[in-house]
Design goal:
The protein is mainly α. The protein has helices at about 15-30, 40-45, 50-65, 85-100, 105-120; strands at about 65-70, 75. It folds into two domains: about 15-75, Arc Repressor Mutant, subunit A (Orthogonal Bundle), CATH 1.10.10.10; about 85-120, no CATH class.
Length: about 120
């Protein structure tokens, strides 16, 4: 079974707790591509949360490319890799294209990113 725990006393809603934990398990490689997730009802029962909460989480993670549903076959970790890293790569490529279009040199881009990292 997945190592996911819902803190019912947390200010963070169960939906968000579940979403974050699944994404983190995928990012760390603890949930790899093709891994079948529990059924909505079974997972909800195990976690002590409403089935609609699990279903909503699965839907959102499917929309963001983390999970894929194969009809009655179930819900699986998507084959497209770590969605967090893919999103970061996409954002970085867009940033580089934008600053290059503004006439900023690659050296200046690196300096800007370094300054932002130090400030943040």
């Amino acid at each position: 079974m997945l190592d996911i725990v819902i803190d019912h006393d947390s200010a963070v809603p169960p939906f968000e707790q579940l979403r974050r934990q699944i994404v983190e398990l995928v990012r760390r490689g603890d949930l790899i591509s093709g891994t079948k997730l529990p059924t909505v009802r079974g997972f909800a029962e195990t976690l002590g949360i409403a089935p609609n909460t699990v279903a909503k989480t699965y839907r959102e993670l499917e929309q963001s490319g983390v999970l894929e549903t194969k009809g009655r076959g179930g819900t699986f970790v998507a084959a497209n890799g770590d969605p967090t890293r893919i999103g970061a790569q996409r954002a970085t490529s867009e940033y580089v294209a934008t600053v290059r279009a503004l006439g900023i040199t690659d050296e200046e881009v690196l300096a800007l990113v370094g300054a932002a990292l130090r400030a943040g």
